[in-house]
Structures are given as C-alpha cells and as structure tokens.
Design goal:
globular; alpha/beta; four-stranded antiparallel beta sheet; 10 strands
Length: 250
Amino acid sequence: MPAYWMPILVTESLIQFDRVVAGYSPALMILNALTFNARVGEITLLIGPNGAGKSTVLKTLFGIITPRTGTVRFAGEVINGKTPRALLAEGIAFVPQGRNLFPALSVFHNLELGGITLPRALLKPRIEEVLDRFPRLRERAGNQASTLSGGEQKQLEIGRALLLRPKVLLIDEPSIGLSPKIAADVFQMLRGLADAGTTVLMVEQNVRSGLKISDRAIALEMGKVAVDRPAVELLHDPNLNRLFLGGAVA
C-alpha cells in the first residue's frame, strides 16, 4: 500500500483551535471561542445539531473562513489567514459536502486537475497510486465523472484529495446520498487511512456509523464544545441522541 503520510515532528495534537471566533459575517459568528484539538493518526468526529458549527470548523481550518479572533494551529504553526492553496501545500486536504467533481470530464482528467499543483514528473505516479487504491476508478478511468455511481464519485473525490498525500483529511458528510453498503465501505476506507497515519477530521450526520470508526467524538453546541470523549464511550451513551440534537451543555 502506498504511503500517504510523511512523519512530522508532532507527537500529540496536530490541529489546535484556541478560543476561535469565526463566522460568515460580523453579525453571524458561528464559532464562539471554540477550543479543541485533533491528534495525529486519529479520526475525530464532529457531531451536534444543525447550526452548531461543524462544517464551519472545517472551512475555518481550510482557510475558507478567516477567524475573527483566536488562533488556529497546524503542527504547532499558526495558520490564521492562510489560503486554501497554501494549506494544501502544507498537507491539509478538504472534501466538502456534496459532489465536487467536473462531471463532463473523465475520471482521469478529474484526477489530473486535483494534482495540478504537483510537478509533472510526480503527477502520473501519484495518479497510479490512487488508481491502485481504488480499482473501480481504474476500470472507469476514461468515463465521464457524471456516469459514476454515488459511491464511485465519493471515491473519486477522496482519491483526488489523496493525490497530495495530505497529513490531514477534512471530510464533510462522506455518507450523504450513499447506500448503507457503500457508506460502510467509505467509512472503512477512512479508518484505513487513519491507521496508516493520516489524521481525519470528519463531520457526519450518520452519527452511530461515524462513531464506530472514530477515535474521538466532539459534540458542538452553539459553536462551543459540549462533549469531548472517546468515540466508543459516546457510542454506548444512552444520552447520545440528546447530545446530537442539542441540550448537551445544559
């Protein structure tokens, strides 16, 4: 199996949010002094009711949203204000919610565009690595992305992110629109990435399935951490539904 992760000089927290306030306008702050961390080689699952700030965390970490106050660190370095392109180069990849492909282009051309920042000499072997990991994409490399099944399209989105061998994979609702079987395959693939050393920060509405493959779970409420516990503990907590739907802080 190709290595997608290179060692870094961090033994615990790879991602740190320190009292981060962020949102979509001065009048709409979603994250309210949010503080949490994500550790190397773990899957950290963000859960909580709609509007709690889960997707906003991913967008803030990837530079789509700039914190109003507070600090975001990656591998000990402050990354506030860095662009998504700069963060990609540092090893953070983002797979947003929904379909984010070029539907009229082939699978192969979608992968080429995903690796556009790579030197040409590296691009072809990196694409080969992705196709080795996803045999179904190799079979359909010449097909338009629009003709792929939902599961195949999700594989293509994740494969495109893996071209850059990220240290961190941010993924928003990986199971959305997928059948239970295909969703289970995607979850197991994410678990395999984490076991190989990639740090995964995931938002997932299918909470129980997400908890089964995660190391830690963080429940957000009103832009703050309500609960931060090992995923296996939260999976068997009788109050799980209340934590997910709201009311955890109270």
